[in-house]
Amino acid sequence: MGFRVRLAPLLEAGRHHWWSAARPAEIAEELNALLRDPEVRAIIAHDGGQTALGYLDLIDVEAIRVDPKPILGYSDISLLHLVLYARTGLVGFHADLATPGLGGHWQTAPAARRAELAKLYSTLLTATEPIGALPTSPSWECWRPGRAEGRLIGGVINRIVLAQATPYALPLDWFDGAVLFWEEMGGLASYVWSYLHVLRHGGILDRISGMVVGVPHAIDGLDSAGASPTLAEIVLDVLGDRDIPVLGNVEFGHAGPNLPMPVGIRVALDAQRRSLSLLEPVVRPATAPGPSTE
Questions:
Q1: Is position 173 within any domain?
Q2: Average pLDDT, integer, range 238-249
Q3: Which one is catalytic: 20, 75, 78, 209?
Q4: Residues near 287 by beta carbon (within 8 Å), at least 6 away in sequence
Q5: Residue 110 included in any domain
Q6: In what residue span(s) does the LD-carboxypeptidase C-terminal domain sit (predicted)?
Q7: Which residue in the list 46, 94, 105, 254 is annotated as catalytic?
């Protein structure tokens, strides 16, 4: 994509602490160094994991306000997107991770798809004009027809639930008119049903104007022969009579490769036409030297 790439110290071979590359304070220190470095214009997460909750309170949010730069990733990185959007307005990209995504799913995709994604990511990271409609595919499904416009907010659904349980939760009124996007990986279908009910009890489902659901990955109890529900059935069961458009099976999530979903950008959703359009640019012109991607 034409970017200069540097590897962060956390990627040194052999570094680990329990299930992570380092202790939360060490991760925060190195992340903050990247946030303060004017030559670093974007940060791409190597992988997800189970660590972001440990350093949410250690991130230098003032550095982000002074020099906002996109952070790319999904899974555990969803916590960063949601919390940093709530605290600073930073637009994070729910997008492919470096190793399982760019180095994995992309490499097994057809050449035409890789080229399409590379152009899309590059344009989103550099263009100062709205990109418009994201590229669609026959896999997209209309689960409930309708149209909506609003801020795109979401991520991995279990991380949305976790983020809303922290002091850095998005204010409830930020969901007014929002288009909620989410995906999930692992666990049971009943967990997804429960997470959606958490969002219902929290009032979020009463405020959003639309929903976009990614491709589920490795979820037990979906689409099995017999009594198991489909993901669409679970979603519509929890939504009840809330008459909002729902677009399903959109190509983002752990199954990869991912269409980038920028948190906080205004979008237009037309579920029946199976379209999702970005109505605003994702980045603004950089004033620091670059481009460099860490």
A1: yes
A2: 98
A3: 75
A4: none
A5: no
A6: 149-269
A7: 254
